[in-house]
User: Which sequence fits this backbone?
């Protein structure tokens, strides 16, 4: 019991030292108390979704209607409007220029639309250990010629960091058969 209480006090002191931001001792929290070896903080894709709409207000991302399936009455189908919303946190070691690329592909890896490149300059404020950036990409009149599985790849500096799955399928009519 005494060891547990002493360990908790030590962890609280460690946490207080970790979060003295603005001082030269600012560092990432330690995971050792949770029994996990400390990991280096690196770029982290915190949000990657396909949605009806998204906004960024003073660094706060607002999402409306996330989805992963489009049900079409007939093919080809045109989805009138959707948004890819990304939030990426960068570590101090990643300061500088980066390129975030979005690739929309079908199940065979063929492009559904041209890639979108988004340059980003990362400069972590002195009082922090990371910087988050929001990316909101609006897509109009997305055309699907056939049903199937698609993916939106999020690539940072040439490395695939995550992908967003999308399934396009035909609606079934009242008799259980496919329409279109």
Assistant:
């Amino acid at each position: 019991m005494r060891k547990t209480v002493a360990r908790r006090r030590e962890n609280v002191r460690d946490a207080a030292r970790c979060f003295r931001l603005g001082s030269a001792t600012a560092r990432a929290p330690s995971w050792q108390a949770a029994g996990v070896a400390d990991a280096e903080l690196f770029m982290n894709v915190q949000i990657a979704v396909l949605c009806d709409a998204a906004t960024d207000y003073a660094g706060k991302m607002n999402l409306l209607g996330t989805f992963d399936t489009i049900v079409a009455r007939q093919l080809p189908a045109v989805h009138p409007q959707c948004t890819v919303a990304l939030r990426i946190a960068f570590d101090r070691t990643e300061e500088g220029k980066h390129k975030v690329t979005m690739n929309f592909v079908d199940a065979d890896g063929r492009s559904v639309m041209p890639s979108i490149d988004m340059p980003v300059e990362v400069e972590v404020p002195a009082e922090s250990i990371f910087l988050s950036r929001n990316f909101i990409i609006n897509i109009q009149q997305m055309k699907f010629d056939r049903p199937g599985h698609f993916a939106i790849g999020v690539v940072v500096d040439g490395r695939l960091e995550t992908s967003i799955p999308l399934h396009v399928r035909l609606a079934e009519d009242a008799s259980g058969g496919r329409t279109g």
